[in-house]
């Protein structure tokens, strides 16, 4: 999945308020996550980052895995603007 596809998934909908309205009851609540959900959200952080990712223990295994599977999103000099 490309960065544009993920960004599109995050912004699709009539408006931000209607898109996330069903989650309002979870504001200021603790939401337990499974290991797979944590991995998914962490992968979004890697895919959507432009400069830096952080890891509290210095092991960037998920970032390395994503970069090996999708080298185009991990380029040190990505194409940001394209003109014709």
Largest sheet: none
Q: How many beta strands in the DSSP annotation?
A: 0
Tally the helices: 4
What would you call the quaternary organization? single chain
Dominant shape: flat
Secondary-structure-based class equals mainly alpha
The SSE order reads HHHH
- Give the DSSP E fraction (strand runs of 2 or more residues): under 5%
Distance between the termini: 25 Å
Which ranges are low-confidence, i.e. pLDDT below 50, for 5 or more consecutive residues?
A: none
Mean pLDDT: 78
Helix content: 40-55%
Rg to the nearest angstrom?
A: 16 Å
Structural commentary:
By secondary structure, the chain is mainly alpha-helical. It has a domain at 34-74. It has four helices and no strands. The two termini are 25 Å apart.
Features of the shown structure:
84 residues, mainly alpha, 4 helices
